[in-house]
Amino acid sequence: MTAIKFAPRRSEERGHADHGWLKTFHTFSFAMYQDNKHEQFGPLRVINEDRVAPRTGFGTHSHREFEIFSYVVSGELEHKDSMGNTEILKRGSLQMTSAGTGISHSEKAHGSKSVHFLQIWSLPHTPRLQPKYFTREFTDAEKKDNWLRIVAPVGGEGVSMDREAPGPAPVHSALSLYATIISEGSTLEKGIEGKKGYVHVVQTSKYNPGKAEGASVKIRGGGEELVLREGDGVYMDIQTHGQKLVVENVGSGTAEVLLFDIE
Question: Annotation-wise, does 16 bind a ligand?
Answer without folding.
Answer: no
